[in-house]
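hiii so um. not sure if this is the right channel but i have a protein structure encoded as tokens and i wanna go backwards to a sequence. like what aa goes where. can anyone help
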């Protein structure tokens, strides 16, 4: 028994279940690996990217990326 069932797989990823259970917003910025740009995507827009194209950047490292020339997406 649990939340995993072969015949009816879970439609949410593990981190999404944690966000729902803890009632908090996503906090990891993203890079879209399918594009050749220097934009950090807002954490709350993660669902707009294909799963395979997501590269997560923890909030504590965003300043390092910005100092290296990356730009934070306008919210």
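sure thing!! here u go:
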């Amino acid at each position: 028994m649990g939340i995993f069932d072969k015949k009816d797989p879970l439609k949410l990823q593990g981190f999404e279940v944690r966000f729902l259970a803890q009632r908090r917003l996503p906090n990891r910025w993203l890079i879209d690996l399918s594009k050749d740009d220097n934009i950090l995507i807002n954490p709350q827009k993660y669902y707009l990217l294909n799963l395979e194209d997501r590269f997560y950047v923890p909030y504590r490292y965003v300043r390092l990326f910005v100092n290296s020339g990356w730009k934070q997406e306008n919210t």
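oh and The beta strands are 29-32, 39-40, 54-57, 71-72.
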